[in-house]
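During the reporting period the student researcher (J.K.) took over the structure-prediction task from the postdoctoral fellow and processed the backlog of single-chain submissions. One of the processed entries is reproduced below for the supervisory committee.
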Amino acid sequence: MSTKEELLEEVLLKEDVVKQNEIVLYNDDVNTFDYVIDMLVATCDHTPEQAEQCSIIVHYKGKCTVKTGDYDDLKPRCSKLLQAGLSAEIV
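J.K. obtained the following structure tokens:
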């Protein structure tokens, strides 16, 4: 096995070990697109375009992963979304 192959294998193994959590946002019939977009920009550090795309996916697919990262980073963000009346969970 070459050094390059060994390095690639090591990187792939490390990627498997690092578990990333996700905030999943769910569709509802209460909140407007503009409100959801504003909340994603404020809470998840989305650009307006990214937040708009996520809101469209949530509307048509029923859910969308809106943020990926460490649990400790996602927990307060998810709490803010829930406090704002959105339906979300960390998976």
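The committee noted the following: The mean pLDDT is 91.
J.K. will present the remaining backlog at the next meeting.
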